[in-house]
């Protein structure tokens, strides 16, 4: 297990693809891992303290990582525990393993994720599980659980997997969604625009577009794109 | 001063078929041995290597609002990093490249000239700003005329003098190079949600037909004597059965002649060479088109060869782009360019196992093989058919039946029954392919100092690691492809700009434009121009581009 602590407050964002893979390396190797501090390439040891405890494939990020982007990006196995908040693009393109965030997560959480699990104890930002700029397909598999609230564009272009939000969400949930499940235990804004498939379950109130038809399965649409997505109450 | 020693020169314009000879360069031009002091020359040893003129791309979309909108709507294209900022500029792009990347990639491949093939006249300033941002190559732009209300008015009135005046005025204002015509009348019909289906359909709101537009523009172009002929993107592009329209359009050139060049260039013909009645029974019409083109001595074409992989369809043919968007379900951007033209953009991927894509790929090659190599230039209609960086693939394919057989086995079998590609035994020679990529496009554009290595030509030279005397282009296709992909040396105006695929020197080329004002009475059209400016978003005084705004303008005056 590798424990990483920030040495200072970061003036600009850090971009660091920190994955459990680091736990298989020695402390010296981890300290030499290349990351971006603003537009400069620096070694991880310059900005963070590193400690190794045992051989478990686990990364513990101890402190405020809200200005560190791309944590857990492309990870395939192992576990990351963040004892604070994380910056944008956490868990992007991840294929397996688990990320637990005890604080909040910024935008682009779990984008185009293809497996594994992300648990956020606090709130999440916008664009959870959606497609990266210009790509046609968002999250395809895996699970994202957010215990607090989330922002706009949750599960945009989602094509599989599951997103569960215990609190409220913003507008445009499941826009252009093709498959998978989004579950919102609170309330949210507009839902399912141009939805082709998949299911959105909502406990609280939400805004429905006029392009959904009421059936015994729930609200089916979006008829504008001949979609067969389902929106129903939890 | 440069002395390129012992290279094997292939120079089709000067009828040099693989001869060992020396080339001398002074002040950016190719000169005779007498004019240089050999001891002062930088010597390049080209023993056993192929020495040819720098490549000329006569039809690509490299600058202006279309490619820029394409870049905006395709952020995923910008994830491929090609060069990190340092001595040279940072460049990114998969197929849609940033402006410096376009210059660098052409240079690495041994190309030194490229022309933007469709410039909306009112967007000329943007086009030239972007052309100015492209390093390494010489360039120019062709403004579009085929859907301009004022052009329609001149044709309606059958007033050739007025049309000539308009063309001369517009080309000067836009610092353009020639007359491009995109789906004549069709883009105007699209403003009402329609298109034109044949050469004799009336354009909505005007008493003109595509046939009249093309014929009158050819007549005006020839009377003005512009260096380049009318450059036509035919009607019905991308519609199965359209090869008939293409043939009819080509035949409109009958009755015109020019001793120096063609009177009509039909572009990216692959997109206009489909037989059949729908995509279910579409087939190749390339053989019929080739027969017609070969039988005429005043028409040239270019291929518009698709390359498997990513591409972005972008044309001034707005209705076609909408059809494509409906067909593929991909993103779509549309533009109505004031009273002049329109445009559309749709992302695209050519897949070998898709029957339609495989058909398009085969038709492009058929055109390249069946049409006389003195009449067909090599293009991919970048980025419509794919990246220009794959020209070496097309070159190698044209030269090797064996390579084509290998490629045919991995594409959808539909091409076997819908095209004749498998039965074509033609293997173009290296000499012919060098002509199709250098001297021919230069001749088509009317650039006398480009595309050859004769005395007085621009010193744009490419040296490839390929010995034409010892290479069997039919058998060693992999070697040919690799050699043309990366030039050992690319020389632009006498300066070495790229060496073995590494940029060594950043230079900025010239922008060619044509001044034909002396050949027409501009005043004949100015009253109408002033009238029409009530419909424009800009004032007449702010319209167009001044020569001093361009980095390195090169005026070609027609007298």
Overview in brief:
Helix content of chain A is 4%, strand content 34%.
Care to describe what's here?
The complex is a heterodimer of chains A (234) and B (559). With 234 residues, chain A is mainly beta. Chain A has one domain (60-233). Chain A is built from two helices and 19 strands. The longest helix of chain A has 5 residues, at 27-31. The radius of gyration of chain A is 19 Å and the shape is elongated. The N and C termini of chain A lie far apart (40 Å). By secondary structure, chain B is an alpha/beta fold. Chain B has one domain (53-445): TIM Barrel. Chain B has 17 helices and 26 strands. In chain B, the strands form seven sheets. In chain B, strands 1, 2, 3, 4, 5, 21, 22, 23 and 24 form a nine-stranded mixed beta sheet that branches. In chain B, β23 and β24 (502-503) form a beta hairpin. In chain B, α4 (149-156) runs antiparallel to α5, α5 (160-174) crosses α7 (210-224) and α9 packs parallel to α11. The mean pLDDT of chain B is 96. The chains are: A mainly beta (234), B alpha/beta (559). The interface between A and B is small, with 4 and 5 residues.
Please tally the β strands of chain B and state the result.
26
Beta strands of chain A, count: 19
Helix share, percent of chain B: 25-40%
How is the biggest beta sheet of chain A arranged? Answer: 13 strands, mixed
**Total number of helices of chain B:** 17
Secondary structure layout plus pairing:
The complex is a heterodimer of chains A (234) and B (559).
Chain A: E1 2-6, E2 14-15, H1 27-31, E3 34-37, E4 40-43, H2 44-47, E5 48-52, E6 58-61, E7 68-69, E8 79-82, E9 98-101, E10 114-120, E11 141-146, E12 159-165, E13 179-184, E14 190-191, E15 199-202, E16 207-208, E17 213-215, E18 218-221, E19 229-233
Parallel strand pairs in A: 1-6, 2-7, 6-8, 8-9, 9-10, 10-11, 11-12, 12-13, 13-15, 14-16, 15-19
Antiparallel strand pairs in A: 1-5, 2-3, 3-4, 17-18, 18-19
Chain B: E1 2-11, E2 16-26, E3 29-31, E4 42-45, E5 50-53, E6 55-60, H1 65-73, E7 81-83, E8 91-92, H2 99-109, E9 111-119, H3 124-133, E10 138-143, H4 149-156, H5 160-174, E11 180-182, H6 186-190, H7 210-224, E12 230-233, H8 243-251, E13 264-266, E14 274-275, E15 283-284, H9 286-295, E16 299-302, E17 309-315, H10 318-328, E18 333-337, E19 341-350, H11 355-370, E20 376-377, H12 391-399, H13 401-408, H14 414-418, H15 430-445, E21 461-464, H16 477-485, E22 489-492, E23 495-499, E24 502-503, E25 511-515, H17 523-532, E26 553-557
Parallel strand pairs in B: 1-4, 1-5, 6-9, 9-10, 11-12, 12-13, 13-16, 16-20, 25-26
Antiparallel strand pairs in B: 1-2, 2-3, 5-21, 7-8, 14-15, 17-19, 18-19, 21-22, 22-23, 23-24
